[in-house]
Amino acid sequence: MRVTVETALQHGLTADEYARIEAALQRTPTIEELGVFSVMWSEHCSYKSSRAYLRGLPTSGPRVLQGPGENAGALDVGDGLAVVFKIESHNHPSFVEPFQGAATGVGGILRDIFTMGARPIANLNSLRFGGVAHPRTPYLVRGVVAGIGSYGNCIGVATVGGEVAFDPGYDHNILVNAFTLGVVASDRIFRARAEGVGNPVMYVGSKTGKDGIHGASLLASAEFDADSESKRPTVQVGDPFTEKLLLEACLELMSPAYSDHLVGIQDMGAAGLTSSSVEMAGRAGSGIDLDLSLVPLREQGMTPYDILLSESQERMLLVVHQGSEEVVRDLFAKWDLDAAVIGHVTDTGRLRATWEGRQVVDMPIAPLTDGAPVYHRPAVEPSADEGARLVLRELTEPRDYGQVLLQLLESPNLSSREWVYRQYDTYVGGNTVVRPGSDAAVVRLDGTQKAVAMTLDCNSRLCLLDPYVGTVSAVAEAARNLAASGAEPIGVTNCLNFGSPEKPEVMWQFQQAIAGLRDACLAFGTPVVSGNVSFYNETEGQSIPPTPVIGMVGLLEDVNHHVTQWFKGEGDAIVLLGRNREELGGSEYLAVVHHQVRGTLPWIDLDIERRLIRSVLQAAREGLLRSAHDVAEGGLAVALAECCITSEGGPHLGAHIDELEGGIRADALLFGESHGRIIVSVRRRHLTRLREIARREDVVMTTIGEVRGHRLEIGDLVDLPVATVRERWRGALERTLAGSPRE
Amino acid sequence: MKWGVITFPGSNDDVQAAYVLEQLLGETVVRLWHKDTQLDGLDCVLLPGGFSYGDYLRCGAMARFSPIMRAVSEFAAAGRVVVGICNGFQILCEAGLLPGALVRNRGLSFLCERVHVRVEDAETMFSNRCRRGDVLDIPIKHGEGCYIADEDTIRGLEAKRQIVLRYADAEGRVTQEANPNGSCGGIAGIRNARGNVFGMMPHPEHACERLVGGEDGRKIFLSVIAAGGVVADPIASKVVSGP
Fold first, then answer.
1. Which numeric CATH code is attached to A375-410+564-743?
2. CATH number for the domain harbouring residue B69
3. ipTM value of the model?
4. Which among B50, B54, B110 has CB closest to A149?
């Protein structure tokens, strides 16, 4: 097949990019070479529109063992251990085929973690669906949740947390972001480098089929249109059982008994064999020769083009020492897995591939990696929308606040997620200390006193109104969630989901979000060690709301200092740390009750957040906190209700709140989403000590009431039986999804 | 006691079971690979939870053909103790070592949650550390945990006191609401007629520490340990016919 500029355009490349390819090769590429360029230069693999901005993020710190650039980031947590974590998107595949799309999203991020030698111990995921009234939403929710569950449950990694949100802005482009954290001895982190001329390149895992060809370039790096359904064949199919075998076999290979045989290892994810070999050689400054005829194949009639670009799952590429081939082959045979030598490392700086004796690829590696295009795309702030102003006095205050509270707790974004997470194995591994449903998941680190806490956060409504403040808010909320769980924030990963970077307004949103991420991470001292950018989340010209999902990891030096959000004991004092403000902009209340998405976002002061977090952590370490809960979506009233109702096994205790600051509107007091607030409960005798801690950090502290009985009473505004509140909140999501038309 | 914990390809609670027995209960554990064929010197063999062979066919349907299963059958026939948890229970049913079958949950979804089970009989080697009517708080996590069997089999299970655990509410009432998966009669755990083979869907190995999952699951393991791996139940041991 003769390659022309038209062929390049069909591959998602531009005419300019094609000209660059011809210049780099100084000839017309073969179809295989064009295929390789198209995936390596895809937005998904090359970060060509985002790379220039990402350079500004803080990525270093005393705990950082591995920052961005490898399969995942790694932080030192002491006791000779490191945690390895990353989040990745699988948005388009999950919209086209929700079950397999979500399942393989989980499979992909798991491989990124165990590629580094870490045993995965926790999965979290951040899911965004369209409005609950959209006819496709229930089908997508069921498929995605079942897909995540099927993969994680089968491979035996606990799914311990995450978030689920609904917004019509995602009607035609849902978001599925999967996070995994693993643990490894800090001196045994493996990296993806093809070093040592003559060393064999080995292929292990599933056989290669025709699935997922051009998943990265055509599915992940282009916007949707009416034909997107026809892209279903580009979605990979997951086999968690094979991945479980691959996981165990790879970790055995990386154990001290075998690891001397291994030079480098990388999973074959997006862009399959192509990206794994190119990236491994690129990092080492070496070259790779491959004989594609040696690749284990699942089906007949595959061309070298197919073999290079297949995104078949559950495969890894290894570079081993010469003479180690037999040992490695035997080890994988024990796990009933294929292992084949398919090439070797060279010093040519080139990727060369033959097939049936014919040279099909012979190209320099540098233009594929460091030499990939970098775009400084124009960013333009959209003109201010006068309609976005919120005038509080024009907003009618509700008469029955109890009913409004119930309405909020039943709304799609605030109702219980139990229906979702009960489909996930949260126990496997035996270390899940705090299961889904509290502020953050807490998982014990085997063989130590320590635990890690993890949370994923983003409020895309805030990011739509103001991407800078919205992103800062997401980072702050994540940090508060960790602190309320007793964990000190130590690092960040992020999944930046945006529309088309070719639109200046989207690029502006992106630029603002990156600036917010940078400023907030600097303030909290939490380096960004890994991440993922997902552009082109749009359908027929309509972009999703900007959605920078923040994954934050925290450390508990002593697992016994973990704290959960629900009230524990009758008579405990309920304390609000932080200040209530008259702020309703961008709130859930405004959206659910008044059907408005507008207003100035709540004010945020990172110094106050930092001091709040320090004081909560100090109180947690001293064992003062019976419960702690961040005030976020739905405001103070929803947070208080959650403290009463979210315990899985009960008891579900009531609250009597009588000391609330006056001077602001009742709806803003109850439902405003001002930052910098955490509700804690403590034994009465510990109030004095808590006050000392708060005073030292200059944090406003108010004893607002006490844990009492079985009613939720907030001043003279709300008086509801806790059982009713829990019942309405608990089953709402299932009822809502059942009530919507099914596809 | 000396326990053998089997790892099938796809087992994923094998590590946890071994951890509980060794680290928390001080037992001796031998890790067994599904291709092993020797069980000599063991007092009890445990088939753990997980997704053996991916369970893409019926759960446990492939694992029953693993090389080690012939040895497990002989071990059971010799009157030695065999415990299957979740996928292990499914494998024991598929292998014919326990009667009945485990099928898709009533609600068709995977379910992971804390449930209560009532001890139906405390005079078994799997429950002797409980009292009859005790309610244990132990998690389940399965997609195919709905126990079914024909009426004769169920009657036989009742008559021979083979039902060890039933799903119940916190007060010990066996009700439809307290039955998470639609199991026949709320059955959560059974033993064979001889009393030496036991399967349960809930995961006692995930309820052995206060910090993670609670401690009620210990009673199951402590019962087996107290019985010392010997069929002690005088009533059940009189029945020598198979499952």
1. 3.90.650.10
2. 3.40.50.880
3. 0.92
4. B110
